[in-house]
Amino acid sequence: MSGLALRRVSKRFGDVRVLDDISLEMGADEFVVVLGPSGCGKSTLLRVIAGLETIDSGEIEIDGKRVDHLPPGKRGVAMVFQSYALYPHMTVFENMAFGLGNVGVPRAEIERRITDAARMLEMEHLLRRKPAELSGGQRQRVAIGRAIVKDPKVSMFDEPLSNLDAALRSRTRQEIAALHRRIRTTMIFVTHDQTEAMTLADRIVVMNQQRIEQVGTPLEIYAAPATKFVATFVGSPAMNILSANPIASDGAHQRVALADGAVVETAVPVSAVPAQGALQIGLRPEAMRLCAVEDGGAKAQVAFVEFLGDKTLVYLSFAGNDRVAILDGASSRARVGETVGVQIDGRAAHLFDAEGHNLQRAV
Amino acid sequence: MEALEIPAVQNEARLAARGAWSASASEARSGLFFVAPYLVAFVILLAYPLCSGIWLSLHKADLFGGSEFIGLENYARLFRDDVFDKAVWNTCYFVLLTVPALTALGLGLALALNNSSRWSTVLRGLFFSSSVLSVTIVTLIWRMVLIPDGGLVANLLADLGLPPIPFLSDAKLAMPAVAITTIWWCIGLPMMLFLAALQQVPKELYEAAALDNAGRWRTLVSITLPSIRRTALVVVVIEIILQFQLFGQAQIMTLGGPDNASLPIVLFIYQVGFQRWDIGYAAAASEVLFCIILLAAMAQFFAARGRERT
Questions:
Q1: Which of A70, A250, B138, B154 qualifies as a cystine partner to B164, CB 3.0-4.6 A?
Q2: Which residues from A are below 8 Å from B215, CB to CB?
């Protein structure tokens, strides 16, 4: 399985812990996206794999060989930096050839590899230019070309799309996905952008406060978040989190009462719910539906409406929370200030305990 | 009706043009107001003395007011003057001794001290401290080091059973001795300029080079030096201009001797102008020095630009 394995890796900068007991395995041709907010340690994770930072404890293996004692150039990794880090005084060709020349690849082989990579990335016409003569998107391609031309065992991308405009970001994202399908190597992509994570990843690693919160496929991360943090971090708009009181249930599934008295029967088994402690219910915007007050359901007041063209986001004052988001159709008739009914799909609800763990996953 | 409209349109265009002219004239006036202080200083302190010096160099003049126009005679005299010839070669020799050494040593020190350790901070201050001393103090210190009669080097040689070396009175050693003194005195500026340049090199370039398996030497040659080449050019040009103006060290340490072996152009100008009162001749020598410095700095500048293009 293992293209890359991290075992109990920890790292401190002085008194500040930046990686806390990280363990992770990645397949030899897997595309893993590390997702998390700023300061969660995701870039540091990339840097310790690359060897740009030493680790305080733990082990790193690439292709079954322990590498955490090796310098960056001996690990068989390549990295695309957020700032691209192209050598400004070298041409594109020289940028790509630099690493190959350092490991003694013959000149003819260097030229063949660069020509192949340039053809793959459609940048053959850029080879004689210097980075200052390139656009942001072209520099991005060169940085990717410089990485793949080394034929690394692990390719790493540190927020490589953050400097591009929206249109170019979307196009480059597709190109990176296509590139991975073509070269089938372990790729690690760090981002704080969940769209990039959801669209690119075979698996997503969600990090928070220097630890891994959850590892899973994009669907698992979205549909079965392990913690309240993952639930609220992934998805736009974020999952609605409301206080909930467990109420006695004679069935197999836990029922909870919201702050306004509405009762929701969840799909969470009663056995998974602790006897004591506060609960919170997590509801994705699409797990609720607006209806007329007379059609039943809980009552809520419309606080804000966002028309997005193909859909409408309606924010409600509901169950003690004044920013509960609901997805409505493009022709939504919700108006600010009006009272509406809300129907909740209890089977799609998540219950979180006081520590923020998803109780459904605890079964 | 048409006949009436055409002049009206023309009049509007004329008014618009006058408005635009008036706006640009007003802009020019306010611009002039902003540059005026520098312009006044430039004219009084640089342009006028330069022109005045060129005019003076065309005269046989002394400090007591007598002046006679002699055309290029002072320049012709200079090219026949063996002492001036010697002063030119001495100065060029001194520049060759000091500028490469200051550049290389400044770069070496900057590379060694380009980190945030406490020792580096202390050493940076220490190496720069010599730059704040006056030329009198510096030359006194180095005279005490170099004089054969009880100097530091002489004492060390004596401890080894060797005879003292007359650094300042030997024709072959006088200029190198002045050069060593100058390097010790001036090393702070190039070191600081290189340090500033090194700190501007993005850290990611070094990290990319590390991932590209570049060793220390390869990183220095392929990443660091190309990244600071503009600063290197500035250092070389500044040092050429400064070292061509050697005066104080030679005046205090050797008086240009022995046998004019350490006589630089500026000391020659001083002696001609203020000891022999031949101001016109001294002015001509000054203009020659000005041209030499200009040519040397420009040659270096264009050579570096040419290298950059290739």
A1: B154
A2: 102
Q: Which residue in B203, B205, B211 has the most chain A C-beta atoms within 10 A of its own C-beta, making it the best mutation to test that interface?
A: B211
ipTM: 0.84
CA distances from B169 to B158, B173, B199 (A): 19, 8, 43
**Mind telling me how many Å the CA of B233 is from chain A's nearest CA?**
16
> Tokens for A150?
């080394």
Interatomic CA distance for residues A247 and B114, integer angstroms: 66
The per-residue pLDDT string of chain B (310 residues; one tens digit each, 9 = 90 and over) reads 344 444 555 666 666 666 666 767 888 888 888 999 999 999 999 999 999 999 999 999 887 777 888 989 999 999 999 999 999 999 999 999 999 999 999 999 999 999 888 998 999 999 999 899 999 999 999 999 999 888 899 999 999 999 999 999 899 999 999 999 999 999 999 999 999 999 999 999 999 999 999 999 999 999 999 999 989 988 998 999 899 999 999 999 999 979 899 999 999 999 999 898 889 999 999 999 999 989 988 888 887 777 666 5
Q: What angle do CA A138, A139, A140 make, to 5 degrees?
A: 90
Residue of A nearest to B209 (CA): A99
* Residue A329 identity (one-letter amino acid): G
Mutate to test the interface with B, among A53, A54, A89, A188 (most CBs of B within 10 A): A89
- Dihedrals phi, psi of A204, to nearest 5 degrees: -110, 135
- Hey, what long-range contacts does A59-62 have (CB within 8 A, 24 or more apart)? A59/A5, A59/A6, A59/A7, A59/A8, A59/A9, A60/A4, A60/A5, A60/A6, A60/A7, A60/A9, A61/A2, A61/A4, A61/A5, A61/A7, A62/A3, A62/A4, A62/A153, A62/A154
Distance (Å, whole) CA B300 – CA B310: 16
Tokens of A170: 């979307």
Strand partners, A253: A269
Whether the CB of B310 is below 8 Å from some CB of chain A: the reply is no
Name the β-bridge partners of A190. Answer: A34, A158
The confidence score (pLDDT) of residue B142 equals 94
What b-and-e string marks burial along A289-311, b requiring 16 or more CB atoms within 10 Å of the CB? Answer: ebeeeeeebbbbebbeeeeeeee
Q: Residue A175: its pLDDT value, please? A: 86
Q: Does A73 touch chain B (CB under 8 A)?
A: yes
Cβ separation A85–B212 shorter than 8 A? no
